[in-house]
Every structure is written in C-alpha cells, then in structure tokens.
Amino acid sequence: MPTSSRPAGKSKPGACLTFLTAVIALLALGVFLAYHFSRTSPEGAGCTVTADGDVLKLTPEQASNAATIAAVATSRGLPERAVTIALATSLQESRLENLDHGDRDSLGLFQQRPSQGWGTSQQILDPVYSSNSFFDSLVKIDGYTRLPLTVAAQKVQKSGYPQAYAKHEADATLLSGALTGQDAGALSCTTGADTPYSAGGRLGSTAKVTARLTREFGTRVRPREDAASPRTVAVPAAPSGGSAEGAGTRRGWEVAQWAVAHAHDLKVEEVAFGDMRWQAARSGKGWQKQKQSAHASGARPSPDDVRITVAR
C-alpha cells in the first residue's frame, strides 16, 4: 500500500495559505458589513417612491441626500430636468451616499475630486456644497435640458464610463417627480419603530428644521415657527413673489416630501399638507387623509401651509 512521505500531523502544502485567505476574506466582509450597517437606520426603516405603477426603494440616507439635491436645484430656480440629471449622476457615482472615499481622491455624492478643482475634502463632503458645484457646471452646458441625460452628465463628470448614467434615468425621473412635487405624495418613509425618536432623549428641534430648510431651499421658502404649536415649523406653500396656478400645491408637496425624506435625521414626528398627513408613529401607513383640527387657541392651521412637527 502506498504510504505518504509527509510527516503525520502536518498540513498539506498550501492549506495554511488557504485558511489564512479565508480568514482575511471573512474579516474584510465583516469590515464592509460594519461600515454598511453603521450608515443605515433602525431595522425596517426605509423610503419608497410610488408613481404610475413604478416603485423605487431607498434607504433613509439615500432619500435624505436626494431631497437635498432637489432642494438645492429649487433654490437656484432650476427645472425638474436638472434634478433628474443630478440624481442619475449621484445614483451612478455613489448610490446617493455621501461617501468619504472613492477612486483616487474622489469624494461625496458626486465623487468630486479636490485635485480636479471641485473644492476641499470638507467642502465636497457637504451635500449642499457638492450639489451646488454640480449645478454650477451643469448650467454652463448650452441646452443641457435637451441633451440625452448621459451626455449632459458626462459633460459635467468626464467619467471613464460615460454610458453608465443612462441606466439610472428611469429611477432618477421617478424620484425627481416626487421630490419636485410633480407627483403628490409619491414619497413616503417608514421609521422602523412606533416611537422612533423620543427614546433616549433624541428630541427634534424646530431651529434645526428651519436652518436646514433655509440653507437648502434658500429664499424660495419662508419657514416660521408656529406660536400656537411650539414644536411645529409652518412653511407657506406658495412660492415667494407670487406663483403660477398650481405652483403653490407643487411647492407644498416639494417641501412636505423633503421633510419626510429628512424625518430620520431631523427627528420629524409629523408632516401635514392640505388634507394629507404623514406620521412617524404610523409611518407604515404612508400618507393618510386628515381632518383639519383647531389649535387649543381656537385658531385653525392654514391648509396652504406645510406643517413640520418635531418629536417631543
């Protein structure tokens, strides 16, 4: 019977290397999962856009970043097409995540590079700054709204994979329709818990909501704190300086959906506009019809206001 010349108890050649490789792979997977799940919200939290039978699922982070991009476009008076181009670009470059890493020195929502003149690392990792930088370049392209999306995006990004943006156009179009108020109530988010914010002292702040609204929408919105309801920020739906017919309703939904998209990070408890209401405690039900009720003071909230109420 043939016998092995290998001493008893010794591993086969290469077995240790295989074992070490497997351990390293498992460690790498663990690091990836830890990084990924550290960026997400509580179990069950997420956002959904539904319009004309199409559905898009997003994480709260993705929805929040997308809402910021759309708000910055609004602050500049840009058309919905600009929002669609920007969202498709960010979906390709970062999956709408504000990444602190990338190819070479690429960073942020659009993977902009400090070495290419897009700004400092700190600036690029600010979603408002990076969105403005993207739009600064986009609006310089003659006739960008009439160009194929992939052409317009490539003229800004100068990517090595210029055709990649096209595969995100349908999702970006669906998302921009919701975030610009074109598709009323199309975006809703679930918080993952019945009482998501109040536990552990995680309270909301009307000052933070007002500051974010003002920074992202600029002078296009006029938020004010509601004296009759101290946890509520009211935003008139009609754009400042007058508006075309229907613009107030669209602007109202734009702000309302922005608030829901930012509900997790701003600790928003309720968003109401017109006869519709979203509540964190019942977030699984999405937008629901509400009855107009009076404050304790007897005054009724204006149906033309978007009302954003933070957690107690």
Describe this structure in words.
This protein folds into 2 domains: about 130 residues, Lysozyme (Orthogonal Bundle), CATH 1.10.530; about 120 residues, no CATH class. It is about 40% helix and about 15% strand. The longest helix is centred in the N-terminal third of the chain and has 24 residues. Helix 2 packs antiparallel against helix 9, helix 3 crosses helix 6 and helix 3 crosses helix 7. It is of the alpha+beta class.
Short description:
The chain is an alpha+beta fold. The protein is 39% helix and 13% strand. The N terminus is likely disordered.
| CATH fold call of the largest domain | Lysozyme
Number of domains: 2
**Strand order, largest beta sheet:** 4-5-9-6-7-8
Quickly count the helices. Answer: 10
Average pLDDT works out at: 84
User: Approximately how much helix is present in the residues?
Assistant: 25-40%
The string of secondary-structure elements, in order, is HEEHHHHHHEHEEHHEEEE
Largest sheet: 6 strands, antiparallel
Tell me the radius of gyration.
Answer: 24 Å
List keywords for this structure.
312 residues; alpha+beta; Lysozyme; six-stranded antiparallel β-sheet; three-stranded antiparallel β-sheet; 9 strands; 39% helix; 13% strand; globular; disordered N terminus
Layout of strands and helices, then pairs:
Blueprint: H1 15-38, E1 46-51, E2 54-58, H2 60-75, H3 80-94, H4 121-124, H5 127-138, H6 149-157, H7 169-179, E3 187-190, H8 206-217, E4 224-225, E5 232-236, H9 247-261, H10 263-266, E6 268-273, E7 276-279, E8 288-289, E9 305-310
Antiparallel strand pairs: 1-2, 1-3, 4-5, 5-9, 6-7, 6-9, 7-8
Helix pairs in contact: 2-3, 2-5, 2-9, 3-6, 3-7
